[in-house]
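Postdoc handover notes: sequence design on the structure in folder B. Input tokens:
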């Protein structure tokens, strides 16, 4: 390997670190809520990259919180017990038997796997579900015929604030209970958005299976890197944002309206997408901001 090649590689690394400095300074001590799911949860290399990114955030002084679903593993376990997965308007139909499997998989398997991976990577993770400490109080979803599917009624941030202050990384599965103790399966994007709002987070980041919001879904290069709330609503009205992206954008808008400073939709299939989005000028996905948002750098402008 030539010395010129080595020097060029070293120069690139120094440039990237220098570019990250204003963001490292601005976001130190700030809370970032990461919704982890999709393809990043399926492939071993991507799992490890996400865990390293989360530990990195903690090591540079940020306060990461991880909220996760686990759809593929839920489907696999439903198949093992002979239950056919069913969906209605994008929501998993959750009868009592399905709820038992959802709770077992999300709370007992996926959550503990994420906690273990973060800890072995050098972080200090603590696992929760929404039921623990009444962190998330659920209510039934307003759609009929979908069983124990819930929505977030309230979030008790006092459960996790002391952990964040001491440098721990909360890992939260999207299962919660109502006032009577009945468990509900809640969309992980929704849980992440409401927790971000309750924590007055700097950022909500949704790891997805798409680059972000596209002007043309058939053209990945048509990524829209930055939007505000009115622009986001207009894209939904025009049909540019459609299908499964609508609830994600709605989730971002709700969190911003409640005080979260920026929401990001990024492609979890790209290794280290979290760091590329947060610490580089160009970013890698779509950032939606509230009014008056300002960064140390003004990326994408």
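Designed sequence:
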């Amino acid at each position: 390997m030539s010395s010129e090649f080595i020097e060029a590689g070293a120069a690139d690394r120094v440039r990237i670190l220098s570019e990250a400095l204003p963001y490292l300074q601005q976001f130190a001590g700030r809370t970032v809520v990461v919704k982890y799911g999709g393809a990043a949860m399926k492939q071993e290399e991507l799992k490890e990259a996400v865990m390293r990114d989360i530990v990195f955030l903690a090591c540079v002084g940020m306060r990461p919180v991880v909220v996760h679903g686990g759809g593929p593993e839920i489907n696999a376990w439903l198949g093992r017990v002979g239950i056919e997965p069913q969906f209605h308007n994008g929501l998993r139909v959750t009868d009592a038997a399905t709820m038992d499997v959802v709770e077992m998989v999300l709370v007992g398997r996926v959550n503990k796997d994420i906690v273990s991976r973060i800890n072995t990577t050098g972080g200090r993770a603590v696992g929760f579900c929404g039921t623990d400490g009444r962190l998330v109080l659920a209510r039934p979803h307003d759609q009929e015929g979908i069983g124990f599917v819930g929505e977030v009624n309230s979030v008790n941030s006092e459960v996790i604030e002391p952990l964040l202050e001491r440098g721990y990384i909360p890992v939260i599965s999207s299962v919660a209970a109502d006032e009577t103790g009945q468990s509900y399966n809640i969309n992980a994007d929704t849980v992440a958005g409401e927790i971000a709002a309750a924590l007055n987070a700097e950022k909500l980041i949704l790891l997805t299976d798409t680059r972000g919001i596209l002007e043309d879904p058939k053209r990945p290069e048509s990524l829209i890197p930055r939007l505000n709330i009115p622009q986001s609503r207009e894209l939904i009205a025009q049909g540019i944002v459609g299908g499964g992206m609508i609830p994600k954008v709605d989730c971002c808008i709700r969190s911003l309206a409640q005080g979260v400073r920026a929401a990001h939709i990024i492609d979890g299939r790209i290794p280290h997408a979290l760091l590329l989005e947060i610490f580089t000028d160009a970013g890698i996905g779509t950032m939606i901001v509230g009014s008056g948002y300002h960064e140390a750098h003004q990326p994408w402008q």
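Context for whoever picks this up: The chain has nine helices and 14 strands. Don't rerun without checking with the PI first.
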